[in-house]
Amino acid sequence: MQERYITCILCPQGCNLKVQIDDGKIVSVKNNGCEKGPGYANDEVFHPTRVLTTTVRIRKAKLPLLPVRTQKPIPKGKIFEAMKVLAGIEVEAPVTVGQVIYSNILNTGVDVIATRNMN
Amino acid sequence: MIGGGPAGLGAAVEAKKLGIDDVLILERDRELGGILNQCIHNGFGLQEFNEELTGPEYADRFIKQVKELGIEYKLDTMVLDITPDRKITAVNSHDGLIEIEAGAVILAMGCRERPRGAINIPGSRPAGIFTAGTAQRFANMEGYLPGKEVVILGSGDIGLIMARRFTLEGAKVKAVCEIMPYSSGLKRNIVQCLDDFGIPLLLRHTVVRIHGKDRVEGVTIAEVDDKKEPIPGTEKYIPCDTLLLSVGLIPENELSKKAGVILDKNTGGAYVWDDRETTTPGIFACGNVLQVHDLVDNVTDESRIAAQGAVRFLKEGEKTEPQPININPGDGVRYVVPQRVKKSRVEGAFKMFLRVTDVYENAKLVVDSDKGRLFAINKRRLSPGEMEYINVTQRLLNRFPDIREITIKVERG
Amino acid sequence: MYDVLIIGGGVTGSAIAREMSRYKLNICLLEKEEDVCTGTSKANSAIIHAGYDPEPGTLKARLNVRGNAMFDELCENLDIPFKRNGSLVVAFSEEEMKKVRDLYDRGIKNGVPDMEIIDRERLKKLEPNISDDAIGALYARTAGVICPFTLTIAMAENAAMNGVEFFFNSPVTGIDKHERYFTVHTPDNVFEARYVINAAGLYADEINNMVGGEPFKIRPRKGEYLILDKVEGDVAHTVIFQVPTKMGKGILVTPTVHGNLMLGPTAEDIEDKEFRETTPEGIQKAIEGAMKTTRAFNLRNVITTFTGVRPVPDTEDFIIGESKLVPGFINASGIESPGLTSAPAIAEMVVDIVKEAGLHMEEKPDFNPKRRPVIRFNELTDEEKKEVIKQNPAYGHVICRCETITEGEIIDAIRRPVGARSLDGIKRRTRAQTGRCQAGFCTPRVAEILARELNMTLSDVTKFGGNSKLLLYRVKELLKEDGEKNV
């Protein structure tokens, strides 16, 4: 039996989850403030993910950078690789918020979208 | 609205929705949205929209409404003066110097970052020392990374966010030093901005010297004792080219003072009623100019309260509250907002925002009145870095007749 | 061939350049840094002293009193912020009161006008916040506070308008003496000049030794200061000194000409002329010293601290004159306090010395003693504000919100003769970045204007020239090198 403490990052509450793992499975989660806790603990133990927020270069816009994010969380282990991919692209204004900037990044099935309008 | 960040935007939208036609936002930057535009990370909007948005997305939701509702705004416009009778002097390149008479004013200027001088870090004065927010603007909007070997002093949220930002962009964040025994940032930010990347958070540490003549070459850090004094012998040199400061935010109330608004020493913001009216009738305040919030959702929440107060003022004019109640911070509580309540006007309930002075485990927040105890709430953990909210219902206020004072304190165990 | 070459663009060099520019001469000034006013002149008490401190009969005494009298006209002509708010030397014991009377006598000998000795009651009336331990003071009405940056910059600018050539980033690396002229070397240039004036501040001894003048030594002495927010500006109304010691005039409490409160300086001899650090001990000493005068200030309102280094000569007096060993080489060296006050008088004296040394000097009929006044938006009336924005909309765009400095002012600071080239250059000329946020908000915008006006990128913007680059990388640049990052 293995015991781990994981801070849930789903909301600003930041519950300090007490997770018990046995034989490669989570057997109990305690200290969660809401029903999302156990699911988060499971993800965090077996396949942690994060939403990546960053920027890409943009041409013909009032600013040199366009803020973007992955539409859904991607595997934590792919964050830096994703940064490299996005460092290599450049888009052109105008762009609207929510527009897909890069599809299916690193075959995760997740798109990268613009997070603001840019003229 | 003085300011077109989340507080000003939220208040403008609410005022317009409540039937006020003539709403004007004065914004000093070149676009609406305020600091949200440079906060490209996510974590905004869980309460407000039930989804996790980035700063620009959160701002966009309100900017869209401002445009749809036809609310007037002026950009690149700096307010120079507000008089107690609500005459505003502002300036921009387009209109020149303008004077505006307002029926009600909502102060929404936000806050500024505490600079180096205010904390007196010894050493030289080279290039490469930035407040975290300035570095954030350069990195996220202007397209420049100040440096690639970074030490961060202070563990405020912007500092934590910038630790991750620099790391993702290929820089090395060597340490985050926090003089207090706890971080002033949110726990989730420590996890996802520091722990995820193996960036050490050094509690009870501070920068005791900055090195470098032209550009920062390194800093000496040291552990501090209980009085926050560096402990001799614990000094450690860290080479770096950039020092970021995330050592606190200060509400920007220079204009408020011109309007005769009295400030609360503990918040640095105005002393307000529950409807966010300041000590100057017809002038309201909300958002970080009033109290530094952890979450923009709470800023929006507060901006609505202020707008509702302002709209009522416009409709009913100035009224003296017959049953004022003062709210006081007691033991273990640094401040409470609002500082007083118009009891006769409370509809349903009102919300108190407060911060504690220290970290407490398994403590109680106790709400007392001058006529007797109102209630107590058990708290697993209280921390100065995390704002607490308490709803006080009208029913509770009526529990004793004639309450004049309310005090909130922390009780251990 | 220049008639006169001045080494050093501090207050002394700039004053000499301006005074010399009255005459039909070829003049140049070499400055090792990227701007004027970057050494001792930028970090000092910013006081125009009355003149009761120096030993009677010294150059310091004569030039201080003469210099002080020149400031009204100088500041009028060159549009320099200056207030004659008077100074006090406060005594905390009978023994100190005796010293105060000695200072008064010394002042009389030096020819200082408008002094009086005041009792506790008058003192309290003048300075309600003064410590209850104060028993009396010397009150000198002619003392004042000035903006030392504007003083130096305005004199340099006016000199440039009148034909003086300025060379920056030009440290003197060698001087060759010839029969009737000198060759002066810098890393990028060689200059020939008939007369060389040494106004090199902390490095004046090295320049002097380079050419073989009568030897002297300049020792650096540091002083640490604190600047408080304008909300503390009313704590003191006059320049409040304590009774002086051998190390200097002691720790003072004074309003600045811009309405902040200043505390300091400490006085400590050091080895390194380039030392500019503040230290915990020094700042503590400055605070404790100031608290003897008054406790009315709140340290939460400190907005910045800084260290200045004074050039202390081993001769105990200013070293001004033509070298006997090296005719044509003229020192204006060892200009420690009261150097700022004395600067215009030193310049007059140096002109006389050069004349006497044989340079033919004919006044220019077209010398213009004035510079175009600076528009300080914040100080204008509403009507004036409307007018300047109408003429130039850039004055309607506020860049530094703490000090209300507009884009128009920043552009003007860059475009004037001897204009700003760096963030600190903008700061010294406009006060943008000097307010309570200490440049947090306006740095990106000031940098942008600098880059635009000087036709460079943000990567080229420096804090104060040289390697003081503000921004080291473009975003995404570091991701293209192959890093070894792991989550």
Summary, kept brief:
Helix content of chain A is 16%, strand content 38%. Chain A is of the alpha+beta class and 119 residues long. In chain A, strand 5 and strand 6 form a beta hairpin.
Commentary on this structure:
- The complex is a heterotrimer of chains A (about 120), B (about 425) and C (about 475).
- Chain A contains two helices and ten strands.
- Chain A has helices spanning about 35-45, 80-85, and strands at about 1-5, 15-20, 25-30, 50, 55-60, 65-70, 75, 90, 100, 110-115.
- In chain A, the strands form three sheets. In chain A, strands 8-5-6-10-9 form a five-stranded mixed beta sheet. A three-stranded antiparallel beta sheet of chain A has the order 1-2-3, with helices on one face.
- Chain B has about 425 residues and is an alpha/beta fold.
- Chain B has helices at about 5-15, 45-50, 55-70, 115-120, 130-140, 155-170, 185-195, 255-260, 295-315, 395; strands spanning about 25, 40-45, 55, 70-75, 80, 85-90, 95-100, 105, 110-115, 130, 145, 150-155, 170-180, 200-205, 205-210, 220-225, 235-240, 240-245, 250, 285, 325-330, 335, 340, 350-355, 360-370, 370-380, 390-395, 405-410.
- In chain B, the strands form nine sheets. Chain B has a five-stranded parallel beta sheet.
- With about 475 residues, chain C is α+β, with helices and mostly antiparallel strands.
- Among the domains of chain C are: about 80-145 and about 220-310, D-Amino Acid Oxidase, Chain A, domain 2 (2-Layer Sandwich); about 375-460, Orthogonal Bundle (Arc Repressor Mutant, subunit A), CATH 1.10.10.
- In chain C, about 30% of the residues lie in helices and about 20% in strands.
- Chain C has 13 helices and 23 strands.
- Chain C has helices at about 10-20, 60-80, 95-110, 120-125, 150-160, 205-210, 280-295, 340-355, 380-390, 405-415, 425-430, 445-455, 475-480, and strands at about 1-5, 25-30, 45-50, 80-85, 85-90, 115-120, 135-140, 145, 165, 175, 180-185, 190-200, 220-230, 240, 250-255, 260-265, 270, 300-315, 320, 330-335, 400, 405, 475.
- In chain C, a hairpin with a 5-residue loop joins strand 15 and strand 16 (about 260-265).
- Mean pLDDT of chain C is about 95; it is low at about 485.
- The chains are: A alpha+beta (about 120), B alpha/beta (about 425), C alpha+beta (about 475).
- Chains in contact: A-B, A-C, B-C.
- Strand 11 of chain B pairs antiparallel with strand 23 (about 475) of chain C.
